[in-house]
Write a structure and sequence with these properties.
41% helix, single chain, Aspartate Aminotransferase, domain 2, Aspartate Aminotransferase, domain 1, alpha/beta, 14% strand, 415 residues, 14 helices
């Protein structure tokens, strides 16, 4: 095994954090979501595709801040556009600046469903706004969901502090299972307001899944048959799979879609985009407002990100880098005696370890991710990977070498 990292500063800072912040850090960034005692808890700085913790350990980062980093950290053209806005004009006012109009025009140019858009701060804000619009438009209550849609009351997976009545009208269906969806639509017949789905499935800690041929088309047809609004949750796929999102990639246009993460390369933003007949519910019937929704720095960052995507082969390059990694990993897995699955598409994919009778898959998973972090490759055991534009050929080759060495070490121990 590779020598354990020095994490003294991270661990000490975590003890200080627990005295001042519930859990030290919040939610998915807590140590138990990684490998406790092996992963850093606090980062210090980043550039390109690499990140450094407060102990000075540097990593090739494939988590990309859970998805927002599309180009790379500290992307100069984007940061300079934001800094110019702050210095020359400011960004937080009682009224709105024009940049949200500019951004809505860009959304309409590239995203098939985006006849109109509205902008919020997070993905959870976006999914919740979309559900509110759909319920107002249809005057119906039930929502059928498939995928992770954020932390707000209607969709949060940990129910502590959430009254049952808040989510009792939310029903989950299984991806790529049309019979399951249709049975729920029949059960709730004329009272389903929305069907919200991640067009490409990325369930927590499980293999990723592409839609079967005709699946998304059938979801749309079924939902419309029962008078429900179709919402694609493109928080992760938007601006990463293609500039027009997964809906453009798969050729299926929803009624509405939500975006966030990669669209501003790390600046906090979420968006709801959709056809006018639905979006106009937010003119009078639906109230969507926040002190910070109109802040322009994220709009400026998104506009610059989109400009860079339009004028460069950034997404094509990300796909090529991802294909190189996936092809290399497939070869390693074919030659290995360790049972592991590679799923996903080149911009976002995942190595998982299927359950086995003796339960050793958990130990194998833990050792794989322990060894990878010790080799300075930053992944997350329960979350898929991302490829960013600034990952270098050297990064990719080193990553494959590290995976190969790790699987060989696992073979020696478990096979």
């Amino acid at each position: 095994m590779t020598e354990k990292l020095n994490l003294t500063n991270s661990l000490n800072e975590y003890e200080r954090g627990k005295e001042n912040i519930p859990g030290g850090v919040l939610g998915i960034r807590r140590p138990y979501n990684f490998v406790e005692g092996e992963y850093p808890i606090y980062f210090d700085k980043a550039k390109g595709g690499r990140i450094e913790d407060i102990d000075g350990n540097e990593y090739i980062d494939y988590l990309c801040a859970y998805g927002p980093i599309l180009l790379g950290y500290r992307e100069e053209e984007i940061d300079e556009a934001v800094i110019k806005q702050i210095r020359e004009k400011g960004f937080c006012f009682s009224l709105t600046q024009k940049f949200q109009n500019d951004l809505a025009v860009k959304m309409r140019e590239h995203i098939p469903c985006a006849e109109m858009s509205l902008f919020v701060t997070t993905g959870s804000d976006a999914t919740t706004s979309a559900i509110r619009i759909a319920r107002s438009y249809t005057q119906k209550t039930k929502v059928l969901r498939c995928g992770y849609h954020g932390w707000h009351n209607w969709c949060v997976e940990v129910k502590g502090g959430v009254p049952k009545k808040v989510y009792e009208d939310i029903h989950e269906f299984h991806y790529n299972d049309l019979e399951n969806l249709e049975s729920l639509l029949k059960e709730h017949e004329n009272n389903t307001a929305a069907v919200i789905i991640t067009p490409f499935a990325h369930p927590t800690a499980k293999p990723m899944e592409a839609p079967k041929p005709g699946y998304l088309e059938s979801v749309k047809e079924l939902a419309h048959r029962y008078g429900a609004v179709v919402i694609f949750d493109e928080i992760r796929t938007g601006f990463r799979v293609t500039l027009g999102g997964a809906q453009k990639y798969y050729g299926v246009t929803p009624d509405m879609a939500v975006f966030g993460k990669a669209m501003a390369n790390g600046y906090p933003i979420g968006a709801v985009a959709g056809k006018k007949e639905f979006m106009k519910e937010a003119v009078k019937n639906v109230f969507i407002s926040s002190t910070f929704f109109p802040n322009s720095i994220s709009h400026v960052a998104a506009l610059k990100t989109i400009e860079l995507l339009e004028n460069n082969d950034i997404l094509e390059t990300i796909w090529k880098k991802g294909e190189y990694l996936m092809n290399g990993i497939k070869k390693i897995l074919v030659e290995s005696k360790i049972d592991a699955d590679l799923t996903g598409i080149p911009p976002m994919f995942f190595i998982t370890f299927p359950k086995n009778e003796d339960g050793s898959y958990k130990a194998i998973r833990k050792e794989f991710y322990t060894e990878m972090i010790r080799k300075n490759v930053f992944l997350q055991p329960y979350h898929h990977w991302y490829v960013c534009y600034r990952h270098t050929d050297k990064d990719l080759k080193y990553t494959l070498k590290s995976i190969d060495e790790t699987f060989k070490a696992l073979e020696e121990k478990y096979c």
